[in-house]
Amino acid sequence: MAKNIVLLSDGTGNSAAKLNKTNVWRLYEALDLRDPSCQIAAYDDGVGTSSFKPLAVLGGVFGVGLARNVLSLYKFVCRNYQEGDRIYGFGFSRGAFTIRIVAGLIAREGLVPWTGSEADLQRDAKAVYREFRRRFETTLRVERPFRALRDLFVSRPPAERRRPPIHFLGVWDTVAAYGGPIDEITRAIDYWLWPLSMPDRVMSAKVRRACQALALDDERRAFWPLLWVEKEVDDDGRRAGMEENWSPPTVPYPLSDIDQQRMSQVWFAGMHSDVGGGYWRDGLSYITLDWMMSRAIVYGLDLRRAEARRLRRFANPNDKSNDSRRGLGGYYRYQPRRMEMLYGDEAKPRLGQDFSRFATAVAKHRPPGSRSARDPARWAPRTRGPTDAAPPMIHESVFARIKTCADGYSPIVIPAEYRVTTRAGEVLSETFESDGQAVARARRQERAWNWVWLKRVVYFVTVLVSAMLAAAPALVLKWPGDGERSLAAPLIPVVDLIGGVLPGLASPWVDAFRQRPEWLLYGGVALGVLLYVGGRLQRRIFDVVRNIWRRSLAGGEAPEVPVPSDWLYRLRTSEAYIATFQMLRRWVLPVIALVVIVCGLGVGASRVLFAIGDSIGLVCPEPKGSAAERQTAEFDTKSLCHPTGFTVAKGQSYRLMLTVTRPFVDGHGPKEAGAANIATDPNGFGFEKMVWQQFLGLPLRRLIASNWFRVVARIGRHGLDEQPLDFEAAPDGRTFVTTFAARSDDELYLYVNDAVIALPGYVDWFYRHNNSGAAKVALEPVK
C-alpha cells in the first residue's frame, strides 16, 4: 500500500526544544503517525540550532548548515520511498528554502538506491547534490575550475535512480537561506565568488501542488520572501504552462476554487513569524496553519482530527501583531514589502539589462519629477512585466482585521488589483472594494509611501550615527580628546558608572567616551532624535493608511482621485531614479563589497601564510653567533628579521640599548623634494602621523595592535615569541633604552613593525623600499 512520506524543515533558530513553536512543529505534531505503512515523517530543526554555539551563530546569521539539512531529508526519502508513495514537504523561513531545495533535488536528480549501507547512501547523496548544485552559478562562472578539480577526486552519482513526483509542497514565507542582513555582501558573494541563490524561481513540473503563505507586514529587507513564478513550470529544462499536463485531484466531494489551482501563494496579516509561528503571541499564525492544513488534506495528508480541530481553535485574526523590528531588530534595513517589487524581483539580475535601462533613463534626461513614471492603480511588476504575474491573492482574514480596526491595522502594501480567497477556499470574483474605491485607495496610499521614503532616509542616517558611535575606540586613537577638560566632562562619571556594570569587553568604548565625552553627548542626542523621528514617521504612516482604508471600505461612490503629482512621488517613481538605485543596489555596492571581501580574504591568507612561514624559520636567517663573541651589534630597519648575535636565557631580564646611527624614517610620507618623510624613533608612531596608505595597510601590519616602526624583539628563529619594546629616550635624543624578560632560550632578533605580503619576492617589499634607519645594539643582563 502506498504511504505518505512527510518532510518538515523549521525556520532559523527554531527547533522542537524551543518554547514558542512554529507551524512546522505544530503540523508535525498533528500528523497521524500511528501506522508507518500509511504515513511517516522526518522533522528537521532549522539552521542555527546547533548545540555548538559558534556554529549556531553562523547558521542563524548566514545559513551555514543548509547542505547538511538538505542531505538529511533527502536520505530519509531514499531509505523509505517505494513506488507509488507520495512525498510531502513543509517548511518555514530558511526551512522553506531547504524544502524547496530538497524538492528540486528529488525532482531533477531523482533518488539514489538504498542498499542498507549508510556509507554508500552518504556518498551517493553527496554526489547527487553536487550534480544538482551545478545549476547554481556565479556571473563569471568562477566556480567551474574549482568544481572540475574537485570532480577529479570525488565519486560520480549512480546512473540508476528513481524519479518520483513531489505530491505536495507547503511553505511559509520562504526567505533566502544564505547571507546576512546586508544584501550587497550576499549579492557580491553570489554574483562573483560562490553561488548562493536559486538559479531561478520556477517550480518543477514534477511538483503536483504547491502552496505558500506570505506575510504582508514584515518591514525587514533581509526577510523579503522568495516567490515562485506563478504562470510557468520547469519541465526538464523546458518552460511549460502552469496547467499543462496537470489536473486537480479526484476526490468524492466538490473541490473549492483554490484547491483547483496547481500553485497558490496567499498573503496573510502579520510579520514573518506571525505567519510562520515562533512568537509567544501567536493567534495570527494559526490562521495560516488552518489554511495550509486544509489545502494539504485535499491532497491526502493524514492528520489526527482531534489535534487539527484543537489547533484551528487558536486562530484569531484580531490577535495583536508582533513587531519584527523591535529593539535591535530596528537595525535591519527598513523596507516594507512593496508587491510590485516583489513580484518583479529576479533570482539572478542581468547587468546588461540593468545597465541598458539605466542608460536609457539617463539618455532621456527628463528633469527629476517631470512626469509620473507610473499610475499606482495599474498592476505592473517592475521587472518581469505585467504578463508574468497575476495580481496577488489576499486572505479574507486580512480584510476582517482591517474592518474591526484591531490594532488600528492598515496594511500599506496591498495594490489596487488583487484577488481574495476565503477560509473555505473560494476565490471571490468581487473584492471588499469596488474597482473605483481600490483605484482611489492605491493613489492615496502613495502619500504614505512618501512618508516611507522619508523613514528610510532616517533609518540610514540612524545606522550611520550608530556606526560612528561603535567606531569610537578606533576614532579616538586618531583624534584623542580633552577628557576632563571637555565641555561634556560632567558625563564622565556617568560613563564610569555604566562602565562599572558592563563586561570587560565594553572597556574600549568606556575608555573612548571618557576621553571624548562630547561624542557620547552629540551621538546620543542625535541617535535619540533620530529614533524619535523614526517612531513619529511610523505612526504617521499608520495614521495616513488607516484613514485611507476607512474611507475605502466605508462604501458609497468612489471619488475620482488623480494620479499623485507631488515632487517626491514623481522623483521616487521616475525611471532615472529607479534605474540609478537599481544599479547601485544590484551592481555598484556589490562590487565595492566584492573588493572588500577579496581584500579581506587576501589579507587573511597573507597573515596565515606569513605566520606559518615565520614559525617554521623561513623569515629569520641563521643565528650569527653568541654573546661571548660580541659586545655590540648593528641593526638595520630594512631587515625583515635582524639577527643580533646575542643569546638570551629564559627567565632572565635584559637591558637593551639602541644608539641610532642613521635616523629612523618611514617612507610613506609626503614626496616633496628634500622631505624627511615620516621621522620616528624605536617607539614608532601611531595615528597622529599616519598617511592614508597606512590606514589601508593596517591589516597587513605584522603586529596590528602595535605602532608602525616600533622595534620588536623576537627570540629564536622558530616559533612566534615576539615582544614589542617600549623605549625611554636619553637626553641626547639618539640613545634609547628598555628592559624585557626573555621567555625562552635562543638568539635575539630585532625588526621594526611594518607591513608584509606573503608572496614570493614581495614579503619584505615595504621594508626594502620604504624603510630607512640603523642603530647599534647593546645588551646586558639585569642583575
TrEMBL record:
Boundaries of every T6SS Phospholipase effector Tle1-like catalytic domain copy: 3-294
One Pfam family here: T6SS_Tle1-like_cat
PANTHER family linked to this entry: PTHR33840, TLE1 PHOSPHOLIPASE DOMAIN-CONTAINING PROTEIN
Species of provenance: Rhodoplanes tepidamans (Rhodoplanes cryptolactis)
Species lineage: Bacteria, Pseudomonadati, Pseudomonadota, Alphaproteobacteria, Hyphomicrobiales
Origin: domain of life: Bacteria
Coiled-coil ranges per UniProt: none
Bilayer-crossing regions: 457-476, 488-507, 519-537, 587-610
Region entry Disordered, spans: 362-387
Keywords assigned by UniProt, alphabetized: Membrane, Transmembrane, Transmembrane helix
Stated name of the protein: DUF2235 domain-containing protein
